[in-house]
Amino acid sequence: MVNKVENESKMKLRNLLKELFQFENADLDFGIYRIMNFKKEQIAKFIDKDLIEEIAKQLNLLAEEEKQALRKDIGDLKRKIQEAFGEDAFKGEELRDEFKATPLGKKYEEKRQELERVRVSEGLERDVYNHIYSFFSRYYDNGDFLCKRRYAKKSRYVVPYNGEETLLYWANKDQYYVKSSEYFRKFSFKVGDLKVNFRVAEVGEETGNLKAEEKKFFVLNQEKIWDFNDSKNEMNIYFDFRSLSDAEKEKFGERVRQEDLNKFILEIIAKELANQRKFQSLFEKQGEKTIFEMQLNKYTKRNTMDYFIHKDLKGFLEQELDFYIKNEVLNLEDMETIDKEKLGIYLLEAQVIRNISLKIIDFLAHIENFQKKIWKKKKFIIRTDYVITLNKIKEYAGKEFLESIVDEIMKNGKQLEEWKNLLKVELKSKKDLTEKLPLDTRHFGAEFKYKLLEKLSERNDLDKILNGILIKSENWQALNLILGKFREKIQCIYIDPPFNTGTNEFLYKNNYLDSCWVTMMYDRLEMGKKLLRPDGSIYVRIDYHGNHYVRMLMDSIFGKDKFRNEAIVNRTIRLKSEGKKFYTAQDSIFFYVKSDDYYFKDVRIEEPYEIEIKLAKNIDCKKLVEVLSASFVDCDVKIQKDRLLLRNQKWVEMHASSDSEDNPPRVFFGKEIPPPRKRRWMWNQEAIDRMIEKGWIRINPEIGLPEMLRTWRHVGSDWMDIKGYAQSWGFPTENSEELIQRILEASSKEGDWILDYFLGSGTTTAVAQKLGRKWIGVEMGEFFDNIPLRRMKIVLAGHRSGISKEIDYEGGGFFKYHYVEQYEDALENIEFEQKRLPEFEDYFIKYMLDFETKNSKTFLNIYEAEDPFNYKLSIIENCEPKVVNVDLVETFNYLIGLTVSQYKVLNNNERKYIFVCGEVDGKKALVVWRSIKDIDFEEDKKVISKAIADFNPEEIYVNGDCIVKGFKQIENEFKTLLFRD
């Protein structure tokens, strides 16, 4: 019975540890699972052998054969004592006191005590296993450690508290929210030699804000369900991820779940593959489910849940372990009642639990820290391209250069096709080219791109003439990448993040919707603060699902004293009722500043001049209107219930103040006009001149006196006077341009940098462009190309939409856009070196991943970078794996924070050189890129030395080896800066 209990305790802990270390995913062949599987053998040895031996060692447990030998010795001694002293020498198994001092008696007692210690240790062993299991299981939830802190032996939770007046705390506070740029990444598993890939063939259009109300599901692709590559022994099964059709809703019901659809998918796949013997292993049962069913459930679940990476798993678990031991193992409240002889046993138990738990924590923390390392690593730019209108090429590069590339443009079918589809412009000859056509370098190739950049920057600083930057990336990764260049450079941030309604807007983990959402927002708001200028401002739009959390988050990150306003803004008017409540008519916009010395321009709205008169009871309104119309020339009279409105009232009547005898005249249209006797003009001459220029004042021809046609009012926190949303781009939550205009005009000036990292349809960047601000917009997902990128090209073309007519925006501009490596891409490019360093103590724990993966491409493989223009990564694009070139040049510009002034491209003996000139921390810098394969370093020195002489930099960066003096090697800087906060 004892052995059975012991074995159950061991097995329970083993199973938990195998769950923690993802053993159930051993057949998955991608991402972190591939990394875990690479070390599976060593982890299994730790769980099944090393851990058990270490517990036995620390409790001084004897092996079973040693215990049997000990029992035999005790039996032999007992017989000898009985032979020497008679049968009465024992009372049961207890030796009588008068015989304990004899030599045989002493040996017998020693063996008895030794066996008793073993018995006690075996009981402790069970307790140790049970306590370790209890400790780790209370924090583990579907692959994540959640920060559930508890009181001793009570169900209530405790949070760290340092005496704050108020404290916002949530379960995932100490974790990073991980969300990739695509939800449908590679999912592969193996069954024997057969490899199976789940692929998404079609994705229902998603947005970064994810506010579409209709839920989406995984369903089998109708055109192609599966295919098989015989040479690779590899099978693909194709899915769509979309909302259900009306016919499907009728078939499956309105409340259908993904689990229900999975059963239907299983039936179809089983029929499709029924006659294919080589696939029958997919339908073998493992427990209650087939292999295919288990993998399908994993796939659909994985792609509809968020997950987290702990910021300091080791510190968190060690702190919680001490708390657990004090309150659950030692139970300090009961220490006074413990027998002193048993106190040592309790202390031994606590020490063993702590020592063993710390070893497990080291294992878990090392793997978690490796994931954190990959998450925090600044990601590579996969591709950079530029969009510039032809008039800007002419302005910055010159008319001759534009004419020199016209033939190349007219021969580029992809560019012409884009103009036709995007702008409805069909070019048949050079004469059809217009100035505002936006040229995209992606259609022309790298040689054309660098030729254009070189020419644009001959007479201009490139970053100064650049209007903005679009980035396709998960937003935390994008902000992390640009931090080196844009730290404290952004004047104004506007974001409209996803609302945590719990439907399809924000995918969440189990019952942690609010905690997941707050975790996601916290790190992105914190990163935004780092990018803001000291005089900058941030505006966050949110609805009632999250406005209370946003206010507390902003207070926590920016400070309560940095709150300025909560403005209310219109939602789309609903025609249908929302049930037994008033429909929601507004969202909130929270306005915070970074410091007290912030920029703000008072916003005023022009409107017809109007005065209001309260009406007396029983008044004859019709007669009153006749009298007033006769008395006041050009006066528009309106009666609304108990009040009367007069518009365009006489200037003398309404704009003269009687609080002073100081009555200097004012000049109106060249004529001095004094105020009435004992009154003075309300406005000074400068204000009057401005209003005349705007057409707000005229001279009434009937009376020869000035009168006000229009005036203004100051904008308060009620923004219901303007549209909150628009419907111009087929985007469910498109912000109106009037809304963004109000924010940018209040908190920025022309030339300031504006940032929106929940860009959505691109309204923020569109308005920033029209108002002469510089801008950065971040979005993820495949719709990036179809909406914000497409929209910005149309904006540059001068499309008269939104506020364009009001401000007379004519178009023209220049921006660049990036595609950025993502977290899952980085995982896919991890490569292992099978090395053993047994001389290092605890090598497996301390060095297993960092050392063996240090030359992975995602960490910059120096040997692969010998040709920096041909450095490749494997990524997932449009749900398919793809090998692409990495833009090391642009990535390094961001890493060192280079403000680019000029590009120069040179070919020397068929070796390409790219020189990037600019500033880093106020110092002139030159960055030199070239392939170093088979390089002649003496000739190389001549080329680089000439560039140095031309630019005269204070800092020089060169990739690879070089014999030029005083340079910094790019690779060393690169690898260091990849991980700098």
How does this structure look, described?
There is one protein chain. The chain is of the alpha+beta class and 981 residues long. Among the domains are: 137 residues, no CATH class; 117 residues, no CATH class; 151 residues, Rossmann fold, CATH 3.40.50.150; 111 residues, no CATH class; 48 residues, no CATH class; 89 residues, no CATH class. The strands form 13 sheets. It has an eleven-stranded mixed beta sheet, sandwiched between helices. Strands 6, 7, 8, 9 and 10 form a five-stranded mixed beta sheet that branches. Strands 38-39-40-41-42 form a five-stranded mixed beta sheet, sandwiched between helices. Strand 9 and strand 10 form a beta hairpin. It is globular, with a radius of gyration of 37 Å. The two termini are 56 Å apart. About 3% of the residues have low confidence.
Primary descriptors:
single chain; 981 residues; alpha+beta; Rossmann fold; 11-stranded mixed β-sheet; 5-stranded mixed β-sheet; 31 helices; 42 strands; globular
Give a concise summary.
By secondary structure, this protein is of the alpha+beta class. Helix 1 (2-20) runs parallel beside helix 6 (103-137) and helix 23 (737-747) crosses helix 24.
Which architecture of the domain at 487-603 and 716-749 would the CATH scheme give at its second level? Answer: 3-Layer(aba) Sandwich
- Helix proportion: 25-40%
Alpha-beta classification: alpha+beta
Kindly provide the radius of gyration, computed on alpha-carbon positions and rounded to a whole number of angstroms: 37 Å
| CATH topology assignment of the domain at 487-603 and 716-749 | Rossmann fold
Bin the strand percentage: 15-25%
Oligomer: single chain
Shape: globular
SS elements, strand count: 42
Sheet with the most strands? 11 strands, mixed
| Level-1 CATH class name of the domain at 487-603 and 716-749 | Alpha Beta
Number of helices, where a helix is a run of at least 4 consecutive DSSP H or I residues? 31
Give the rounded overall mean pLDDT. Answer: 83
